[in-house]
Specification:
Helices cover 42% and strands 19% of the residues. The chain is an alpha/beta fold.
Length: 170
């Protein structure tokens, strides 16, 4: 979230008057938290973001083991400090999604995501105010394997609808 603040401030100082956040997976969760706290964020798009990160990450770390470096392995070489789990408890992603409105929110999620279940996308959508969109990508996994073009098109269409004054001809 602190990294997003740095990126947001950099974009504003570079002269951009509207900044839209797009984050995938845990980056989508961070985008929701940051935008909920910063009303200057123009809109948010999440790709496969968790609605319940504390539960998700706790399950990945069970049983909770601390390695010799004092870190908790989550798998795939990812290790975090034990404080990470306490930090997750501080953030309510459903509440954050509700605070995005009246700014636009786009939630993109694969229906076959085995890392973050599609029900998390439905939970975020249910908690959010208008304008909001939920775009399921049928058959897509957490990485949107083989479906990137479709996901990018969903994002660009949404950006054109809410943030671009001109539309490309088709």
């Amino acid at each position: 979230v602190a990294d997003l603040d740095c990126a947001f401030r950099f974009a504003r100082e570079a002269g951009f008057d509207r900044v839209v956040l797009c984050g995938r997976s845990f980056g989508g969760a961070a985008a929701l938290v940051y935008a909920a706290a910063n009303p200057e964020v123009a809109g948010v798009c999440t790709w496969a973001a968790p609605a319940h990160p504390s539960k998700l990450f706790r399950a990945a770390a069970e049983p909770l083991r601390i390695d010799p470096d004092g870190l908790v392995p989550l798998g795939s070489g990812v290790r975090v400090r034990p404080e990470f789990f306490a930090d997750l408890q501080r953030h309510d992603l459903l509440r954050a999604a509700g605070k995005i409105s009246p700014r636009p929110l786009l939630i993109v999620h694969g229906t076959e995501d085995r890392v973050v279940p599609f029900s998390d996308a439905e939970d975020l959508y249910g908690a959010a105010g208008e304008p909001k969109e939920l775009k399921p990508i049928p058959g897509a996994d957490h990485q949107f394997t083989g479906r990137h073009q479709e996901v990018w098109e969903v994002l660009f269409t949404w950006l054109e609808r809410y943030f671009v004054l001109w539309h490309r001809s088709t």
